Amino acid sequence: MSQQVVTRFAPSPTGYLHIGGARTALFNWLFARGRGGRFLLRIEDTDRARSTPEATQAILDGLAWLGLDHDGEAISQFARAPRHAEVAHQLLAQGKAYKCFSTQEEIETFRETARAEGRSTLFQSPWREATPDQHPDGVPHVIRIKAPRDGVTVIADRVQGNVTIRNDQLDDMVLLRGDGTPVYMLAVAVDDHDMGVTHVIRGDDHLNNAARQMMIYQAMGWPLPVYAHIPLIHGPDGKKLSKRHGALGVEEYQRLGYPAAGMRNYLVRLGWSHGDDEFFDDAQARAWFDLEGIGKSPARLDFRKLENLCGQHIAATDDAALLHELREFLVATGQPPLNDMQVTLFSKAMYCLKERAKTFPELLDKAAFILASRPIAPDEKAIALLDSVSRGILKELTPQLQNATWTRDGIEALATQFAEDHEMKFGKLAGPLRAALAGRTSTPSVFDMMLALGRDETIARLTDAACERA
């Protein structure tokens, strides 16, 4: 029986969940979920000065919005410091690590001399082979791992291919600092091993770290995970993503009104491909996602493509699910919640609102007729359509709607006949109807609005508009 796949996402809680981190989490989630595996979350909160509970919550909220559920409790790396130290002392006892008493001044002197003589500045501690009886008493020290001095280390990477690093480029990395606290490299290796992580999928800015973390695995006799280092995301200008490119935190994308399904679809396509497929749902993404489809070159953020995919997902999403996410968007952006009547109207009208809306603000804009309440305040363009002639037309049409069959065919047949009887094109009638029902000139079909609003509200709005004085 093959080993169960276990992946992890390990963010540092020093800020929001940025878009690159979100994609890394998504790749790990898809790889695990598509293989019946486990997706774990570890909060790398060892930087106590910069780690905050607020940042941790922002990460959890971002993952929740994206729909990336993790198995088990989130693990705090800081809380596991005693275990990290235990491994360092185990390596010390096995002669695979050593106590180094060199001071910072001595290390800097070594490097200055090496630079002057044209040698490698990689620090070589004089304490590497010292025996315990040679150790000074009561002097601060660090614990360093014994790095291999010759040969090469090969990172067998599923994205980058085999990456070879000469061992004489690896220093005797510090495992425990002078105050006994573990370093990041040790913590990551121990945590990944103890959590049973089989596949480490992360940004390629961690590629060099793999060689150093492998030293710990090999010294402890642990089986190595599969490594897959994915290229970073660049901005539309091809430069490394930064604040100048605008929205970075996942919560900003939520507040901009992108649906989570569209965001997932876009992010998975950002650096990974499955043939020519662009639009796909979660089930397809889980079934198709593999490490072989990840490209080696940085992906570029493309907001036009993001909006296009989001529009397709809004159109394809079940009405009730879309309404639920719309209400969450209103909460996230601090807007008033929908009242019961508006919820009912949205449910009836969602079929016509979601066509060609790329974001929730666009969908809300199309739903202006639902959000408005009587008396409808028309905008400047709508006022121009409600002249005395148009109001007269509405006054004549309104009583006929009292007895119309309240179906699309029934209303459309009545309105079309009314226009013919008055020898006008239907467009001449549609303008005033839009202005009366929504207070604006750009709306869904007048028949869709009438059906959603119902007979009583439709007639009330038309009556109001017909009675307005110029």
From TrEMBL:
Top-level taxon of origin: Bacteria
Classification via InterPro entries: aa-tRNA-synth_I_cd-bd (IPR045462), aa-tRNA-synth_I_codon-bd_sub2 (IPR020751), aa-tRNA-synth_I_CS (IPR001412), aa_tRNA-synth_I_cd-bd_sf (IPR008925), Glu-tRNA-ligase_bac/mito (IPR004527), Glu/Gln-tRNA-synth (IPR000924), Glu/Gln-tRNA-synth_Ib_cat-dom (IPR020058), GluQ/Sye (IPR049940)
GO biological process: glutamyl-tRNA aminoacylation
Positions of the Glutamyl/glutaminyl-tRNA synthetase class Ib catalytic domain: 4-307
Chain residues that bind ATP: K243
Catalysed reaction equations from the record: tRNA(Glu) + L-glutamate + ATP = L-glutamyl-tRNA(Glu) + AMP + diphosphate
Motif interval(s): 'HIGH' region: 11-21
CDD domains: GluRS_core
Single GO MF descriptor: zinc ion binding
Sequence ranges assigned to domain Aminoacyl-tRNA synthetase class I anticodon-binding in this UniProt record: 325-465
Self-association state and partner proteins as the record states: Monomer.
Similarity-based family: Belongs to the class-I aminoacyl-tRNA synthetase family. Glutamate--tRNA ligase type 1 subfamily.
Function summary: Catalyzes the attachment of glutamate to tRNA(Glu) in a two-step reaction: glutamate is first activated by ATP to form Glu-AMP and then transferred to the acceptor end of tRNA(Glu).
Protein name per Swiss-Prot or TrEMBL: Glutamate--tRNA ligase
Organism: Roseovarius azorensis
Lineage, opening ranks: Bacteria, Pseudomonadati, Pseudomonadota, Alphaproteobacteria, Rhodobacterales
